[in-house]
């Protein structure tokens, strides 16, 4: 009888582990953005001031359908630059679920003086709730333009 009981315990425990594992996977969804007509980008999320300041600095590559989203909740005026950013990027400035400004093929700033690096946009900044950075040319290859809808699926 003990061998039947121990098999039942093992099977029961295995089922419980399988249920817990599959439940955990449902909550571990990767953050994504849906942009325009069916374009999906897997995102790294930057929300703290330190994460926002570092951004994609010093990266040498990024997978094609990946990017970084910078969260500004509540919305605020921001400028971005390419100081110590080694890969060219497209920048999508988002507010109220729409691309309000798109900068394509933004080149790295090679200067060691951050004051020599241009900002995007130039001037006082643009009020946005999110900025998405993707590889240079991604927006053009996927037909993304200003005015396109953007929805986020971000873990809480």
Give the SSE layout.
Elements: H1 2-27, E1 32-35, E2 39-46, H2 49-54, E3 66-78, E4 80-81, E5 89-95, E6 98-106, E7 119-120, E8 126-135, H3 138-141, E9 150-153
Parallel strand pairs: 2-3
Antiparallel strand pairs: 1-2, 1-9, 3-8, 4-7, 5-6, 5-8
The coarse overall form would be globular
The run of helices and strands is HEEHEEEEEEHE
Question: Which structural class do the helices and strands define?
Answer: alpha+beta
Overall pLDDT confidence: 86
CATH C-level label of the largest domain: Mainly Beta
Q: What is the third-level CATH name, the topology of the largest domain?
A: Jelly Rolls
Strand arrangement within the widest β-sheet reads 6-5-8-3-2-1-9
Helix content: 10-25%
How far apart are the first and last residues' alpha carbons, in Å?
Answer: 48 Å
What composes the largest sheet? Answer: 7 strands, mixed
Number of strand segments: 9
Which value, in Å, is the CA radius of gyration?
A: 21 Å
Low-confidence stretches: 1-27
CATH superfamily of the largest domain: Protein of unknown function DUF192
- Looking at the overall shape, the CATH architecture of the largest domain is Sandwich
């Amino acid at each position: 009888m003990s061998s039947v009981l121990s098999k039942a315990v093992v099977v029961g425990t295995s089922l419980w582990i399988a249920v817990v594992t599959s439940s955990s996977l449902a909550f571990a969804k990767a953050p994504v953005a849906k942009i325009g007509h069916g374009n999906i980008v897997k995102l790294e999320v930057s929300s703290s001031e330190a994460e926002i300041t570092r951004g994609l600095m010093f990266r040498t590559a990024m997978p094609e359908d990946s990017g970084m989203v910078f969260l500004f909740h509540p919305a605020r005026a921001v400028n971005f630059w390419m100081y110590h950013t080694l890969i060219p990027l497209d920048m999508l400035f988002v507010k109220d679920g729409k691309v309000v400004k798109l900068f394509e093929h933004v080149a790295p700033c090679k200067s060691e003086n951050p004051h020599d690096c241009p900002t995007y946009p130039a001037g006082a900044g643009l009020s946005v709730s999110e900025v998405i950075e993707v590889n240079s040319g991604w927006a053009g290859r996927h037909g993304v333009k200003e005015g396109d809808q953007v929805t986020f699926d971000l873990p809480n």
